[in-house]
């Protein structure tokens, strides 16, 4: 029997202020935590997160993620890292292409992103260990748990056994 998290639309409507405040607070806390660690402004943060999420899509589509990659600190083989073009970043982030191009140039100069030989950009290999990002995850998960607890308490989400 598996546990599944489900939403309750009636409770969401009933508790919309609590829900929106909790979700917005989680977003702002995440933004602040990541921005302080990586030293990014809001536009660069959006670009950086777009790149990092796009780059692991091939892994996340796997039915069963190989155990050595579940922990998140083992560098992915470069053939599993999918570079993303500046146009795709602009489209996904809804930022102007010129803004994306300009910020990516600065982020490459700072070592936050690298040009990929296949085209597009990726984070540098093994960035998790180099910059100790794993230490940031605890703060993010603590806030996520707090937000989840609020959603459970108000009945907006619940756990169902299937």
Topology readout:
Layout: E1 3-7, H1 9-14, H2 16-38, H3 42-55, H4 57-60, H5 67-70, H6 86-93, H7 97-109, E2 114-115, E3 121-122, H8 127-130, H9 134-154, E4 157-161
Antiparallel strand pairs: 1-4, 2-3
Protein name: HTH crp-type domain-containing protein
Organism: Sphingomonas immobilis
Helical proportion, percent range: 55-70%
| Number of continuous helical runs | 9
Question: What's the SSE pattern?
Answer: EHHHHHHHEEHHE
- CATH domain class: Mainly Alpha
Strand order of the largest sheet: 1-4
* CATH architecture label: Orthogonal Bundle
Query: Rg to the nearest angstrom?
Result: 18 Å
Low-confidence stretches: none
- If you consult CATH, what is the topology? Arc Repressor Mutant, subunit A
Report the biggest beta sheet as strand number plus sense, adding barrel if it closes: 2 strands, antiparallel
Summarize this structure as a short list of keywords or feature phrases.
9 helices, two-stranded antiparallel ribbon, Arc Repressor Mutant, subunit A, 162 residues
Describe what you observe in this structure.
This is HTH crp-type domain-containing protein. This protein has 162 residues and is mainly α. It has a single domain, classed as Arc Repressor Mutant, subunit A, CATH 1.10.10.10. The chain contains 9 helices and 4 strands. It has helices at 9-14, 16-38, 42-55, 57-60, 67-70, 86-93, 97-109, 127-130, 134-154, and strands spanning 3-7, 114-115, 121-122, 157-161. The strands form 2 sheets. A two-stranded antiparallel ribbon has the order 1-4. The longest helix has 23 residues, at 16-38.
